[in-house]
Amino acid sequence: DQQVKQNSPSLSVQEGRISILNCDYTNSMFDYFLWYKKYPAEGPTFLISISSIKDKNEDGRFTVFLNKSAKHLSLHIVPSQPGDSAVYFCAASLWGNEKLTFGTGTRLTIIP
Amino acid sequence: DTAVSQTPKYLVTQMGNDKSIKCEQNLGHDTMYWYKQDSKKFLKIMFSYNNKELIINETVPNRFSPKSPDKAHLNLHINSLELGDSAVYFCASSQAGQGAEAFFGQGTRLTVV
């Protein structure tokens, strides 16, 4: 039972445009959400997070939006840069809990 | 100066062998983890240790035994390796209670032949 889903395995975006990565979850108990970025042959790197008491969190070019009623979150990257090409994982947890539940990832390719 | 380092990076071994993967973190974190990424790219938690104490054990076969000699180290020992154990294993660490914002090692690609 996949509690965190990323339905788009891949996404291609022109450099300078906005990249939007989507994530859905089924467990309404999740209250903390994160995005990780992963380059080949490296471990995932934490990018940005949001708690369920917020609907938006922004950090530079990265913004995460949370829609609790739809159990949906998205990551916006603007403007997209070639170095953003990577696999992006959405993850969810209960605040203060040690366990992360990951989605299957979306491979983002930025086209120069 | 790597924050979470694991060795080896690649491991090829025959079925039935016993192998270990080592992990060390220099971040001063209290909690360490092992995650497994299988061929379908699912990344799932296997174990979590807090200050050398087992916190999470996600129904992993008992052929897998984590060992934490101190809070900076969490090693993974696998007995009687099977073909299905082939995967990438990631070690990670975090501050206690903030498991979400974990720092990951580079991964160990285990191939069982």
Structure, explained:
The complex is a heterodimer of chains A (112) and B (113). Chain A is 0% helix and 54% strand. By secondary structure, chain A is mainly β. In chain A, the strands form 2 sheets. In chain A, strands 2, 4, 5, 9, 10 and 11 form a 6-stranded mixed sheet that branches. A 5-stranded antiparallel sheet of chain A has the order 1-3-8-7-6, with no helix packed on it. In chain A, a hairpin with a 7-residue loop joins strand 9 and strand 10. Chain A is globular, with a radius of gyration of 13 Å. Chain B has 113 residues and is mostly beta strands. Chain B is 0% helix and 56% strand. In chain B, strands 2, 4, 5, 6, 9, 10 and 11 form a 7-stranded mixed sheet that branches. At the A-B interface, strand 4, strand 5, strand 9 and strand 10 of A face strand 5, strand 9 and strand 10 of B.
Which structural category do the helix and sheet elements of chain B fall into? mainly beta
| Average predicted confidence as pLDDT of chain B | 90
Distance between the termini of chain B: 33 Å
Low-confidence stretches of chain A: none
Structural class of chain A: mainly beta
What gross morphology of chain B would you assign? globular
Order of SSEs of chain A, N→C?
EEEEEEEEEEE
> What is the CA-based Rg of chain A, rounded?
13 Å
Number of helices of chain A: 0
Characterize the quaternary organization of these chains: heterodimer
Number of contiguous helices of chain B: 0
- Biggest β-sheet description of chain B: 7 strands, mixed
